[in-house]
Amino acid sequence: LYQACDHFLSGVSLELTGIIPRDPAVREAVVRQEPFCIGAPESPAALAVDGLAAAITRWEPPRQTDGNIKFFWKKLLFG
Fold this sequence. Notes:
This protein is mainly α and about 80 residues long.
C-alpha cells in the first residue's frame, strides 16, 4: 500500500499511526453481528480503535495540497 501511494498519489505518504491487536472480542462480535467497539468497549481492539481515532483528530492537513488529495483532506477533516 505504501508503494502504491508513493507511486500513484503524489503528495501522499503513509505513516504508521497505530495497530489494532488480535483480540478474541472481535471474533465474538462478528458471531453476534455487533460492532466490537459497542459489544466490548474495554477490549484491547476497541481501545486501540479509540486511540487511533484520537490520533487522527490531531492530524494537521498539509500546507499545500493539489488534485484529489485536497478533497480527501477536506472530507476527512470537515465532513
